[in-house]
Write a structure and sequence with these properties.
Length: 133
């Protein structure tokens, strides 16, 4: 259970790093035409977003390596991390940036979710067999 938590949380920080990357490089253009934000304020927001990319990635790698240590297999930790990152990136992209997710995206996301369920079930069976032996 610890491995699942660490891998999932690592995926969350990876998704946050993606959001900060979008803000640092293209997400703040809306503010450039807003009279409330000066050019200096936008520059500070971009710099803070840029630094946040590295902070989120450092935390993500720390949690991911802990997830690898506690999961029954590296495939399981990688799958959980990737799945969490993928889904949360999509949800945040839609909520924060108005990105549209089409039918093909949802079909692919569903296949990823089914694959993660298979990985988790296989991991549980493997753990039960190891406990018996």
């Amino acid at each position: 259970m610890k491995g699942f938590f660490y891998a999932m949380t690592a995926g969350v920080f990876a998704a946050l790093a993606s959001v900060f990357a979008k803000l640092a490089f293209s997400g703040l253009e809306v503010l450039e035409h807003n009279a409330l934000f000066s050019q200096n304020a936008i520059l500070v927001l971009r710099a803070a977003s840029f630094v946040s990319i590295f902070i989120c990635n450092a935390v993500m790698w720390n949690l991911y390596t802990k997830g690898l240590a506690f999961c029954s297999s590296s495939v399981l930790a990688s799958g959980i991390n990737t799945g969490a990152n993928f889904f949360l990136s999509a949800v945040l992209g839609h909520l924060l940036f108005g990105e549209v997710l089409g039918l093909i995206w949802w079909m692919g996301a569903s296949l990823i979710l089914v694959g993660l369920i298979f990985l988790h079930k296989a991991s549980e069976k493997s753990n039960k067999r190891q406990k018996i032996n």
